[in-house]
Amino acid sequence: MSAVRIAPSILSADFAKLGEEVRAIDEAGADWIHIDVMDGHFVPNLTIGPAVVKALRPHSAKPFDVHLMIAPVDPMLEAFAEAGADCLSVHPESGPHLHRTLQTIKALGKRAGVVLNPATPVDVVDHVLDLTDLILVMSVNPGFGGQKFIESQIAKIATLRAKIDTSGRQIDLEVDGGVDANNCARVIAAGADALVAGTAAFKGGPAHYADNIRALRPEIASIR
């Protein structure tokens, strides 16, 4: 398993100054910048579109890890790719043909991710692993930050780690939702190699971001 990456979610940042927030969390030690895109239809919240992603792109050279919680998702893929996304992750439920959606993302020259909600079965990825660069396990129901980690997802992470290892493919296994310094060791031990940290990364304001990220890394380092 590769080294664990920390992907702070800007959903928990100060939206009044997103450019400054992205620069600050980058400088604090973020590996990826996680961007949650919500449409108020697929999930009960409304966040940002491709214009905001494009505006943020000059503020960091770190990979933009874009989680698309929109339906239908296919018509928006090109716009987010052109805006500067490095990885586009989609839900199987957000379109009729997951395989075709992943093909489109790859054709746009981007990394392709599949997102599994808490109730989404793991076997949905079985026949698309050849097109998948990342699997994102939602350990909360998508739509809002600051939710409590759903413990049943630990077993799902372990099952997916076994699938990835058996496939022999280089696929990142990311976890998003309620991840913090109190549970990240168990999440990583189950097989995750990328952690989305929203509230845990951005709490306290910019002066605390480096400490927030460092609070995760000692646990990460101890189980590598």
Automatic annotation (TrEMBL):
GO molecular function: D-ribulose-phosphate 3-epimerase activity; metal ion binding
One GO BP annotation of this record: pentose catabolic process
Catalytic residues (positions): 36 (proton acceptor), 176 (proton donor)
Reaction catalyzed: D-ribulose 5-phosphate = D-xylulose 5-phosphate
EC numbers: 5.1.3.1
One term under GO cellular component: cytoplasm
Record's keyword annotation contains Metal-binding: yes
Required cofactor(s): Co(2+); Mn(2+); Zn(2+); Fe(2+)
Residues bound to a divalent metal cation: 34, 36, 67, 176
Pfam families the UniProt entry points to: Ribul_P_3_epim (PF00834)
Keywords: Carbohydrate metabolism, Cobalt, Isomerase, Manganese, Metal-binding, Zinc
PROSITE patterns: RIBUL_P_3_EPIMER_1, RIBUL_P_3_EPIMER_2
Entry-linked NCBIfam families: PRK05581.1-4, rpe
Family: Belongs to the ribulose-phosphate 3-epimerase family.
Function: Catalyzes the reversible epimerization of D-ribulose 5-phosphate to D-xylulose 5-phosphate.
HAMAP family membership: RPE (MF_02227)
Protein name in the entry: Ribulose-phosphate 3-epimerase
Lineage: Bacteria, Pseudomonadati, Pseudomonadota, Alphaproteobacteria, Sphingomonadales
Chain's gene name: rpe
